[in-house]
Design a protein that fits this description.
This protein is mainly α. The protein is built from 7 helices and no strands.
């Protein structure tokens, strides 16, 4: 049972974390972009430092090559003048500079390789961050659209409110007209008291009418012959 409860707790925590990540997804995306940009900034600074060292090494190699070439020419001149002591000293200096050149060229090659690799990494990271920013814009648009759709569903899709409104309208429309009902009741009362019996007989031609009709008025309006 303990193992089952532990599994349920782990599952509940995972679902809660997933819900939180989904709710704050836009904020998390922005934070990850900021972290990526901070890492890119650090990588750029490192690349700039490496390029600076690379250029410095190139300048020193160029200077050392010129000095070695100059010293070699001087050693050759001393040797031509049979000044072996000076030629020996100059040759030792040339050897020292050439050994230093070998180490500096190796260092420069390693720097070239590191600069090339880091430059590639910086360019790749920069492109990915641009894609992330565009993705964040799209995510915000989708989230806004989802919010609008939820609002519409809550407003227009409230079936209970619509049903209640339709029922109220139906109740109002189906109720009897109280004025018409009153007139009908009056007619019924008059019929029960025989008030309308004379009129009904007069309409059938039995006896004079008890009320003046429009026909009576028209007959009075016609000129007498």
């Amino acid at each position: 049972m303990f193992a089952t409860l532990k599994t349920l707790v782990i599952g509940a925590n995972a679902r809660a974390e997933e819900n939180v990540r989904d709710y704050y997804s836009i904020e998390l995306i922005d934070q990850k972009i900021r972290e990526a940009m901070a890492g890119l900034k650090t990588a750029k600074a490192t690349l700039a430092s490496l390029i600076q060292r690379q250029r410095s090494e190139a300048r020193q190699i160029e200077t050392l090559e010129k000095r070695a070439a100059d010293m070699f020419e001087r050693a050759q001149a001393a040797m031509d003048d049979e000044r072996e002591d000076l030629a020996q000293e100059a040759a030792q200096a040339v050897a020292h500079m050439e050994n230093e050149l070998t180490m500096r060229r190796e260092t420069a090659e390693r720097l070239d390789l590191r600069v090339m690799q880091l430059r590639h990494s910086v360019e790749t990271a920069n492109r990915r961050i641009i894609d992330l920013k565009q993705g964040a814009i799209s995510a915000r648009a989708v989230r806004k659209e989802q919010g609008i759709q939820r609002h519409l569903r809550n407003t227009v899709g409230n079936q209970s409110a619509i049903s209640e409104a339709e029922e109220l309208i139906s109740n109002v429309m189906d109720k009897d007209d109280p004025f018409e009902q009153g007139e009908i009741l009056t007619e019924i009362d008059r019929g029960l008291s025989y008030e309308t019996l004379g009129d009904r007989l007069a309409e059938k031609g039995y006896g004079p009418s008890t009320r003046t009709t429009s026909s009576d008025v028209l007959s009075r309006l016609k000129p007498t012959k």
